[in-house]
Each structure stands twice: as C-alpha cells, then as structure tokens.
Design goal:
2 copies of one chain form a homodimer. Chain A is built from 7 helices and 26 strands. In chain A, the strands form 8 sheets. The first copy, chain A, has a 6-stranded mixed sheet with strand order 14-13-15-19-18-16, sandwiched between helices. In chain A, strands 17, 20, 22, 23, 24 and 26 form a 6-stranded mixed sheet that branches. In chain A, strands 6-4-7 form a 3-stranded antiparallel sheet, with no helix packed on it. In chain A, helix 3 packs parallel to helix 5. By secondary structure, chain A is of the alpha+beta class. The longest helix of chain A is centred in the last third of the chain and has 19 residues. Chain A folds into 4 domains: about 150 residues, 3-Layer(aba) Sandwich (Molybdenum Cofactor Biosythetic Enzyme, Chain A); about 55 residues, Molybdopterin biosynthesis moea protein, domain 2 (Alpha-Beta Complex), CATH 3.90.105.10; about 70 residues, Molybdopterin biosynthesis moea protein, domain 3 (Molybdopterin biosynthesis moeA protein, domain 3, Beta Complex); about 70 residues, Beta-clip.
C-alpha cells in the first residue's frame, strides 16, 4: 500500500466517531449491572435514612436531660436501648453507646458525661434527601453505585445495551503463525470493552443482528487479501489504509444496511493496535463509555532518544526504568506482540514528529494501570 | 464495642495474609483465560516466526543483486512474489513492496534503488526464540498475552483456580434501609476481584465447598447481632473489632475445617470498606493476584485541612478539585455510600495521625483509574 493512499489517524478516528452513537437503553437487574453504563439519572425515591436512626448500638435519650452529667455528678436519665439502624424513639435525639452508660434498677441509665444532641444519630436524609440525584446517567456502575442503589430500594436499572460485535476471521493461515490467534485476542478485547461477540465467516459479514463488524485479516493488497474487496462489493469501503504503524492496512466502511465494518490487519500486533485505536473506541462508544484509549496515561520522561518516522502515527513500546523514566523497546514491527507483553506500556508518536530527544517529557500509556500499589497506611 | 478491644488495622491485615495462600492451578482454555492469573511460566515451543518471513506483500529477492540500482540505473533482478507472513524463498533475504518494483516481461523485477539485506523481513525468532519465556507465572492474562500465546499455538493454560466465596447475609432489615443492599454490592465486588459467589444462610456458613466465607451484618454487640457468636460457637473468632472507621465491628476467624471467615459490618459503607481492605485482599490473594488495594493511587496535595481521630485508621472520602488538589468530603460515617458515589476517591489516614494540614502531600486513591484520558496524538 503506498503511503499516498493512507489517511491520517485523526481522519480514521473522526470516521469512527461519526459511525458510532450510544446504543439504546434496556432494563437490567441491578445485581447484573456491574460495569454497565447507566442510561438515565436515578434519584432517591425517599430520604435515606427515612428518619433519624441510631448510628451505634446504645441508649437513645434526650440530650438535654444529660446536661451537667460528670464523673463527680453521675446523672440518671430516661433511655431506650436501640440497635444500629433503628429509628430513634420519639422525643430522643442522641445515642450513647452501651459501654458508656450504666443501667440502674429504675430502668434509667447513669451517665458520667453529657451527650450532645445528634450524637451517634444518622440524620434523616444524611445519605440522600428525597429526590436527590443518586447516580447520574452515563456512569459506569461500580460496586459502590450498586450498593447505594440497592440500599435505596432500586432493583432494576436502565442501562445502555451491550454492543453486539460480529467477529470475522478472514486471514489465511501463514507459516509465520502456527494458528491465527487474533480471534482469541479480539474476543478478550471485546469482552473487556463491554461487547458481546458472535463469530461469522467472511460470507456472513453482512448478515443482520450486529452493531458493528470486525474483520480480522485479509486487509492487505496481496492476492489472498479479500476483505477490502468483499466490503467494496457488498457495502462501502470508505477508508483503506491509515498512516499508522503498526497496522497501516486497516479499512473502514459500512454494510449496505449501514452497520460499521472495521477491517483489522491480520498481523497480530497490527490487529491489536488497530483494535485499541479504532475498534475499541467504536465499541466503547456504542456501549455508552467514553471512547478514549483504554489505558491510563501520565507524563513521563524519555531516558533515551526515541526515533519515529515522519508521516506515520507510530505506537512505540516502552519499558519503565527503576527511576520512573521510560525508554523505547524493540519496535512492534520487529518484535510483534512480544514487545507488548514484555513492555510496561507505549507512547503514541504523532505523524508530524520524528520522535523525542532524551529528557523530553512525553505522555506515556501504561498497561497495568497506574498503581503505586501502596499498602494502606495503618 | 469499646476502643480497647479493637485491634490495629495492621494486625487485621496480617491475619488476612496468614489466612490466605494462592490456590492451586487448574487448566483453562486460553480463550476463557482473560483476567486469570497464570500459574506456571509459558515458554515458546518453537521460534516465532519459525523461519524468515515476508513482512509486507512484495517481491522477495537477494539484496546483493540489487546493488547499484538507481533512478538512472534501473536493474532487473530475479524475484518471487510473496505475501506478508510467507516464508522467504530459499536464497532470498529482502522483500521489496509491490509498488516499489516493476515486473518486466522476463519474470524479473526492475528496481530503481537497492534493497538492504533483511529489509521487510520478519526474522526467524524475532518475536521469540525457541524456549524463550513468553509469559511469566503470576501474570494476570490481558488480551495481549492471549494474543501472543494463541499465536504461539498455545490452546490451554494453567491458571490459578478462582476463589469460591460463600456469601452469607446475616443482618436483619432495619428501617434505615428499605432493603439489605450488601449482597448485591458484595457480589459485584467479588466478581471484580475474580471470585465466584455462592449464597448461603447463616446456618450454612460452615458447610464445605468454599475457599472463604463472607458474613455481612450482625457483627455488632446488639441483641440481634449473632454473627460473632455463631462463629465463636462453631469455629474460631480470632479478632472482633478493628480500629477502622468506617467499620469497626469487623470480625475474623475460621470454620472448624480451617476456612477463613470474615465478618463484615452490615452498615453499607462499613461493609464496603471492610471488603476493600480485608475481604478483597483475601480473595485477590487466593486467586493469585497481589493483595493490595484495588484502586490506583498517586500523590496529591490537600487543598484544605483534613481532620482524623487518633487511634483509628480512617478512610476519608475526597474529591478532586479542578487544579488537581484534593479535599475531604462529608465523612463516610455521616453520608454513607453517597460520599463514595459522589467523590473521586479516598485517603487512608493512619491510626497515629490526626490528619493533615492544607498543602500537605498525601497518597490519594482514585476510584476511576488515574486516566488523563488524552486522545491519541495524530
């Protein structure tokens, strides 16, 4: 493929964004909704807690009656035993923990210090007032959201439907790979990004029932490469060839029904990076997530010069040095997926850049989340 | 529960570590292994690629024969058309892309510049030499690992068995919560940490078939709180009461068969933080993951004073300000899970600390991964 025919990565990203819209909402049981994206705001139907409640196991009493209690002036006050979470009995406004009061024979309890009004009380509405926003539309539901919604009596939620991804392996086996490993990798990627996968043969690419089609392999201009021709013949091939390394034979188009089709190069590392830049973005956008790269990024310093070709957006594997700086590894074009497995992350060198000198501040993406992994202090 | 009876968080963490060991290995189809932890090193059975292969579609030729080719000295050389991934024909050592050579009528191709030996060739062993380490034991398998292993012909892997978690909801419904939402939250948390959940009644806590038991609720000292007594009566209760806010009524023990049992307070936010500090750590360690807190952390600056009680490890909710500094929100003890849902993360204030002055550098944990979420440059 000649360099002239390749479109800039920015144009391919714009194509993806124009081709993908957040899917419609569906109902999900709250219990099954972890990781799904909320499609509508959820507000509290009632205050949480609905009334003032005990925040500890103890004696509920009227704080006013304890005024003046002290070590040299023990005071007996009317009290009712309550357990954590129980509503305060009428007329009481504080709770004294069991071990800080002594019941006497009259059914009162003896205090040696005064209680403050509101002490150990969960105030009505402290977690949420009636009608307050609990979780906003667009939020990916984490366990803490599920807990708050469950506590609020929510059993079912409106979430964005999962994208249905049709995966077509169109490459022919080659001696450089004992097997075509792209299907297994792509299934894992689609699952990570919230999609569900069905597999199909190249002949079935254009059947219904999918929100997006990924075709892996057969994207080059060799005689065995039929993916682009098949898409041209039965739908539209809008872009073929992207100024990206690795993975310049990517293609973008639509079925005749208007379903987006992404052609991913069959070389495993090119398949991976085309997925990460384009297909993953499309699937995450369909599912209501934000479409940016999956990996966390942060500024880092280049320990050595990093060289890249002008005119290509290059994904360059990096490792993190013990001092926190990063250095380039053997390029993906040479070492393939091994550079992704052995490395700590990557940088994206723009088309206009020849790379960076040693000491340059660059934006680095890391595979394994940016965790310092400190132990909780104690 | 009196402060005197509560053990430091460090002691509870040490209990968890002593009670949990990485589970045994089992076989998994590679395709189903995303997120599982590899139990043994995997080495390349053969070199990848096994022989020198074409890295582009083009003409394979002997570089030596192209010496001297130039715009004013076109040279016709013997060549064989090859496709990306095909082994180089014997005697050839370079590939010239189709669009950079012109076939002539004699079956040779005409070059206007010399080819370098090795140009556009994937060298045998460039991805991995035979016997080279592909993925190390202890690695959580991401899609890129699955891709490399699939490409290497690996179809099945030895991974650490998933922890089986028995979940027992022992709390009694209280008026402050329309429903007990802990089960839904805990199921989501256990799933996130790689475990599988079965639910049981308190009476069944001590049945077989689980690697760890979580009992949610009934951990206090009220009359309806029976979790600790049940564990004492039928197994061992090693710790009851931890110097942690929220969640000081946590308990730790074993069934008579030696299975670890964690008693989690029933107040939702106390349940969450006890899970995150202790139960999640236990489940991740059982599954071969590292046991540290799930959330990514990084240094941050306190925008305002943060106050905490001496003698308690306090989990303090924070929000991130537009300038990147963080500030404390309404404490979990007051606002419950709402502070976790509305906040951006938390800090862990040690027992020995009264908090931090404005401007202090603190270690902050963030819920939503530390992603700058920059667009890929292009």
């Amino acid at each position: 493929m000649s360099a002239a025919g390749r479109v800039p990565v920015a144009r391919a990203l714009a194509w993806v964004d124009a081709a993908t819209r957040c899917l419609e909402a569906e109902d999900s049981a709250l219990e099954k909704a972890a990781g799904r994206v909320l499609a509508a705001d959820i507000r509290a139907g009632a205050a949480i807690p609905p009334v003032d409640c005990a925040a500890v196991d103890g004696y509920a009493l009227r704080a006013e009656e304890s005024l003046g209690a002290g070590a040299y002036n023990p005071l007996a006050v009317a009290a009712t035993a309550v357990e954590l979470g129980e509503p305060l009995p009428p007329g009481t406004d504080a709770v004294v923990p069991f071990d800080q009061a002594e019941p006497d024979e009259t059914g009162r309890v003896v205090l040696v210090e005064p209680a403050a009004a509101g002490a150990n009380v969960d105030r009505a509405g402290a977690v949420a007032a009636a009608g307050a926003l609990l979780v906003a539309a667009g939020t990916p539901l984490a366990p803490r959201h599920i807990g708050l919604l469950a506590q609020s009596g929510v059993a079912s939620v409106r979430v964005v439907r999962r994208p249905r991804v049709r995966l077509v392996v169109a490459g022919t086996p080659r001696s450089s790979q004992p097997v075509d490993g792209n299907a297994a990798m792509l299934r894992a990627l689609v699952g990570r990004d919230g999609g569900t996968v069905s597999e199909a043969l190249l002949a079935d690419v254009f059947g219904g029932g999918a929100d997006i089609v990924l075709v892996a392999g057969g994207t080059g201009r060799g005689q065995r490469d039929r993916s682009a021709a098949a898409l041209s013949a039965t739908g539209s091939l809008d872009i073929h060839g992207v100024a990206l390394a690795p993975g310049d034979t990517a293609g973008f188009g639509h079925t005749v029904e208007g379903v987006a089709v992404l052609l991913l190069p069959g070389t495993p590392v090119a398949c991976l990076w085309n997925y990460e830049l384009f297909a993953g973005r499309a699937i995450r956008r369909l599912g209501g997530h934000d479409g940016s790269l999956f990996y966390p990024s942060r500024p880092a310093v280049a320990a050595k010069k990093i060289v890249s070709a002008i005119g290509l957006t290059e994904i360059c594997p990096i490792r993190r040095l013990p001092d926190g700086r990063v250095e380039a590894m053997a390029p993906f074009a040479e070492a393939g997926l091994a550079s992704a497995v052995q490395g700590d992350g990557f940088i994206v060198v723009p088309e206009t850049s020849e790379g960076y000198p040693a000491g340059a501040q660059i934006l680095a993406y890391f595979y394994d989340e940016d965790r310092i992994r400190a132990e909780p202090a104690s």
